[in-house]
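Hello Y.,

Per our agreement to keep a running log of every chain we model this quarter, I'm adding this entry. I've kept the format consistent with earlier entries: sequence first, then predicted structure.
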Amino acid sequence: MLIKSSDDGFIHPASSEITSRTIYEGRRDMLRLMAGGVAGAALASWAAREALAQAVPFQRPGKLVALPARKSGVAGAMTLEKVTDYKDASTYNNFYEFGTDKSDPARNAHTLKTTPWTVEVEGLVRKPAKYALEDLLKLSAQEERIYRLRCVEGWSMVIPWVGYSLSELIKRVEPLGNARYVEFVTQVDPKTMPFVGSSVLEWPYVEGLRMDEAMHPLTLLSFGMYGEVLPNQNGAPVRLVVPWKYGFKSGKSLVKIRFVEKEPRTAWNKAAAQEYGFYSNVNPNVDHPRWSQATERRIGEDGLFAKKRKTLMFNGYEAQVGQMYAGMDLKKYF
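Predicted structure for the entry above:
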């Protein structure tokens, strides 16, 4: 949700809560700098833009329906890194149901029909249910989370998501004591997903998490990004976001959430088990068999002389999630 400030003419997310004191102090500093003449005026302009950039990490793109959200209070949920441009985040995607090139999903995903939409929750739960999208949207308060996204291919983004902790849904369905894993199933429809017939993966696309991973507050059931509903190519109308794992672990366009006792066989693990483990935690110390995972290329920082970033353990969320893997051999359980 956006509001337009009558004072400064900028567009701000309503959740940013920019106070009159912030605006006043920015103007005061600008006036003081302007006393230095032309150079001072240029510096003042720069300083004002920087101050506003810090208060407003992104602007709603105005492409799709707005999805209002409050800022999240979950530890680690709001990175202060520069947000990736919406254009990049919505046109550089992996969504093989719509093609294997990065530009294919944005070009082809218009065929996906997202209404009506239901998500079936089944398996080892006391309260199995079939949720209409409208009911899922109302199940818990929508939150804004700004997460790092790290692809197993060695590139990364910073994306503002909208949704709520998956644990809110899990608590409603009351898993049984023998439910140790959660399996996520993506829509499979050759009529609306033209590349489902390809042999690159086994369909439908399936992903999975251990129960403690699924219950972690950072694990997000997402319905939007950049203050709007999800674009089709980014997994509309509902997807998973698990920020400390490689991006392919975050299943898109979900239609089933299944609670099971045994570790699910996931799509990429079935396709190439030696390359894509079940856990797939971001780990700079465990290389992919065909490339290093020690560094990454941040989309939007692609200049000729741009340096790659060092990849962080658990994608920078070690303080929040590292305890779940204490004592595990992360080279064996990759």
